[in-house]
Every structure is written in structure tokens, then in C-alpha cells.
């Protein structure tokens, strides 16, 4: 709940790399001591897109979801739950960005065309999912599959266009899904701007299947598609994986770009005496300097995300995953983009959305901590950000 702790530690001088002028949001129109405005943008903030250095793109899509549904409602649920968060971040305070909101964060509205496209694609996909993708020679199901695949390709192109436009404007971008197929276009745009990037993939699932259930752009195939279709991704580091098929495991072992840390193996090492901090350093060491974070909420312990579509026992604690994310920036690496996917609101409870909003704010803070907003870089300084001067 919003409280009295609102000012950061002693004023700090941040060095930011960016394309064009750093945006200076009007801080005078927001009282961080007051209750968040439920009619405002995400986290109750008043900033519009033009004055924000980080833009969140909601993608309410779940056409290929193969088990529990509801993640298309994730972006709105997170937005609705987010105003009650305290915006002082004690974890980032030690790194001179106790209040990331001061750099301007804005969440776009949901695009009605994408909402309608999702409804249509879901209606077409459900009969295919009901038979496990075994459509045989059924002409109606074949037509439906073709149309769903076309709709998914259209979604990817739209996301890529939306993200590329904000990158060109010198802004950081985060995607809020939706199922895990939604960030493909974002990764495509960011990898084109930052070739050689690495992906830190937090998930219960490897998502390395080939066209799962016949869907070429399935949520279960997103990382296979990233590796097979995008030249700009140099490394995929996976953490929390505990539900994986034999072909996925084989690929994870044979593809030199992939490093997969299976959740049971990490747990065994911790129980045997390894410190989680040392394991985080080991995980991060495999990443290049520029990192995209793909965060599927089901990478966490399902007690933190009971509504998610494919929960799996085990998983990371909230504190554990935050230690991992902080290890990325402590190492000197930069978070250049991110997604948060598979948050699905539970009926009668905001718990899933509450946890999702907290993960989202931390991702925003880590991305803003060392911004690298475009290929063409200039150096400037944004002083006194924590003091509000």
C-alpha cells in the first residue's frame, strides 16, 4: 500500500546512454505520497507516452494457449492492481534509482483491433486444441489452422512495428502479455537494434517445441522461433525450467546458443550447499552485455501465480528471482528490453495481478537503471533523480 517512504537516498548522478534528448517527465503533477490514481496509467502514474522514457505495450492475446486460459486479461488486471504499489524500491535504492517512476513510465491502451483479432483467433483455435492438433484431413480444421497461423503472424508484425517505433523515438519498451507468443515481435525489433543480445528466459517451460499443436507461432514454440528466425540473438539462457520434452531437452544440450538451467538441478545444488548468489553469478556469466529479459510468471512458485495457464510445482521464489535479475545489472550488463507474460487473473482475487505488477515495476526499474535506448549513443547525465531536484 502507498505509504510515507517516498524519497530516495542522497541525490545521485546517473549516466544514461540514449538516442536524442532524454525525456523529462513533469514530476510536479504527481504526488507520490498520495493514493495511486486508478484512472491514470500503470502504477497510477500521470505521465503520457511522449514524456516517458519507458513505454509498456499490452498484448491481450491467448490464441494458442493449450491448457488454462485467461492470460489475455493479464495486461488489464496488472494495470488495475498496480496503483496500490509503493513506488520506492528498496532493492534499487542501493543502486541510485530508488524511484524508477521519476524517469517516466507509461502503459499504452489495448488496441481494439488486436482484442478483436484475439477473440476471432481463439474461436478458431479451440477446436484444434481440443483434438491436440491432430486435425487429419478435416477441411474445416485445416482452414482454421491456416487462419490462426496467419493471425499470429499478423500479431507478430504488429508488435514488431509498435516496438520499433518506440525504439526509433529513443524509448525503452516492455511487453505485457498475453501468452508467451506475444513478445516475439518485440524480440525481433530489439535484436535488430541490438544485434548480439542475449535473452534471460525465466519460465517453467523451455518453449523450444516446433509448431506445437500445429500452431507455427505457439506460446510453446516462442524460443524455438527466436532461435530459428532471428539472427540478432546470440544466446538464450533459461532458468526455472522444470517441464520439458525430450526433443526440447536434446536441443537445449546440442544448440551452442542455449544454456538451460533446470530447476531441479539448481535446487539440488542449493540443498547441497551452493549459495543462490553464486549460482546467479554463474547464470549471468553466460549472457552478453546486452540482455533482454523474457519473464513468464509460471517460472515462479505457483503459489505466487495460481491463475497462470500452465502452473508447475517447484519454481523460483520472489526473492530468488529478484536476486537473479539484480545480478544482471550488478555485473555491468544492461537490460535493453523485457516482457512479462502468462499472468492470468484468478476469479475473485487480485493476487496474480498483484504479484505481476510487482514483477513489472522491478523490470521497469532494472531497465531504467542503465538505459541503452538505441544504437546511436550519446552520453548525458540526469542529476538528482532520487531527490526530485
Explain what you see.
This protein has 389 residues and is α/β, with parallel strands linked by helices. The protein has a single domain (42-383), classed as Arginase, Chain A. The protein is 36% helix and 16% strand. The chain has eleven helices and ten strands. The chain has helices at residues 74-81, 90-93, 112-130, 139-168, 184-193, 222-229, 246-254, 263-271, 276-285, 318-330, 351-369, and strands spanning 13-18, 54-59, 105-107, 172-177, 197-202, 233-241, 258-262, 290-296, 334-341, 378-383. The strands form two sheets. It has an eight-stranded parallel β-sheet with strand order 3-2-4-9-8-5-6-7, with helices on both faces. It has a two-stranded antiparallel sheet with strand order 1-10. Helix 1 packs across helix 11 (351-369), helix 9 packs across helix 10 and helix 10 (318-330) packs parallel to helix 11 (351-369).
Q: What attributes does this structure have?
A:
single chain; 389 residues; alpha/beta; Arginase, Chain A; eight-stranded parallel sheet; two-stranded antiparallel ribbon; 11 helices; 10 strands
Q: Gist?
A:
By secondary structure, the chain is an alpha/beta fold.
The number of helical segments is 11
Summarize the main sheet.
8 strands, parallel
Low-confidence stretches: 1-18, 371-389
Q: Summarize model confidence as the mean pLDDT.
A: 89
Fill in the CATH topology.
Arginase, Chain A
Strand fraction equals: 15-25%
**What top-tier CATH class fits best?**
Alpha Beta
Overall shape: globular
Share of helix, binned:
25-40%
Number of domains: 1
Give the radius of gyration: 20 Å
Q: What structural class is derived from the secondary structure elements?
A: alpha/beta
CATH-level-4 superfamily name? Ureohydrolase domain
CATH architecture label name: 3-Layer(aba) Sandwich
How many β-strand stretches? 10
| End-to-end C-alpha gap | 25 Å
SSE string = EEHHEHHEHEHEHEHHEHEHE
Give the strand line-up of the largest sheet.
3-2-4-9-8-5-6-7
